[in-house]
Each structure stands twice: as structure tokens, then as C-alpha cells.
Amino acid sequence: MFNIRTGLLSCALLMPVGSYADSPPVAVVNGKAITQQAYDDYTKARKDSDKIDPKMLIDELVQRELLKQDGIQEKVDQKPEFIKKIEETRENLLMAMAIRNYLEKHPLADAELKQEYDKQLANAVVPNEYKVQHIQVETEAEAQVIIKELDNNFATIAKAKSTDIGSANQGGDLGWITQSITEPEFWSAIEKLEKGKYATAKSRFGWHVIQLNDIRVIEPPKFADIKERIRNAMQSQQMEDYVDGLLKKSKVEILKK
Hints:
Strand content: 15-25%
Number of domains: 3
Largest sheet: 4 strands, antiparallel
Shape: elongated
Distance between the termini: 55 Å
Mean pLDDT: 88
Strand order of the largest sheet: 4-3-6-5
Number of helices: 9
Order of helices and strands: EEHHHHEHHHEHEEH
CATH class of the largest domain: Alpha Beta
């Protein structure tokens, strides 16, 4: 027997509201038709519907219909708790659809999104990436000795002496790195270096001999890649402006101190 908890009620509030009058039935429960359109809407609301036997989905719809019919027969819909929940749902739906209605009446054109993208790009501080090799040791004294030994053989010494096994196997190469993945002291030393020069720095992992090999500016994301993210942010501002506008043209009295 199907377990109600696994899906019978999970999509109750997700199913779209539509006209099913012209849709053929897939099942009939006590004279009430479950239409193909109702089935299609239910499967869309179920994210895992492609993994479920269609027969099981129809069984779920049948059981949903049985529960609804029994609820009506038992006059559950006339109980105060039910009526209160209906009003809460109505209020939430009204608010959601009022916002959707406002956004539909004030659509954001691609030109507006591109203008916001250009504005953000102009004000953005574009960070650098650094191509770095390092040799990690336990003490400052060891780091100073290694500095004196370096002479175009950084990779060889890294493989022999670095305690950072992962990068040691690559000759100390860390590839292109950014501040977000780097220890503060390590990053501070890198930023002060010129290409091809060495420095030492201490971190929670030990002491490091660092060589800076190259610097490049991180390319900003393309407009097409973040257009929808910009739209979401701008729509959030639209919603705030919408509510602020309603407040300004309304009379509101706060009675509770």
C-alpha cells in the first residue's frame, strides 16, 4: 500500500490551478473524473516523477481524491480550523500574486539588466590571481636556508624538502590562486612580491618560501552568465519599492506601543 508520507500530500500546494473540463479522464473515483491534465500537473509538481511508475502516480491521485471526498463527507471543510487555514492560505496567495502582478506590469528589459551589469562592473574592484610555487617547512631557520640555496632549482628543492606533499609532488606549484583560498600571512607576502622574486611567510601550517611566477587580472563574469542573477536582485528592489509605494499612499495607524 502506498505510504502517504512519501508523496500523497507533498504536492498539494504546488499543483497549478487550471481548467480540466476538456481533458480526458485517466481515472474516475465515485463518479469524479481525474483528468489527464490533472495527472500532467501532478507529475510536474513531483520532481521525482520521472523515476516513478505512472501507475503509482495515478494511485496517488486516486487516494488524494478519496481523501478529499471523505473530508467533504465528514464536513472537515466546515470546521473552524479548516476555515482559518483557508483564510491564511488565501492571504498568502493574495500577497504572492500581488507581487507577481506588479512584476509582470513592470518587466525588466535586457537593456536595463545590461545597464545594471555595466554599472556593477564599473564599480567593481577586480582582484588579481597569482601563479605561485612554495616550499613549506617547519621553522623560519629552515626557510632562510632554503632561500640561500635557490638558484633556478625551486622545483627540485620543493620535491625534496617541502612538507606540503600535495604541492611538493608538483615542484611546489600551487597554480593560480586567489585571496579567498589563501592564508592571510601567505597572501600578504605574495602581494608584495615582484614576478620571479622570493619571500618567506608564516602560516598555521608552518613557514613558506614563496616564489611569484605570474600575475593576471581575474576576468569578470559575462553578462549572459549572470543576467538572471541580476534580474533577481533588481526584482527584489522592485518589490521593496512596490511596498514602499503602497505605504506612502496609504493611511497606517500603529496602535500597539
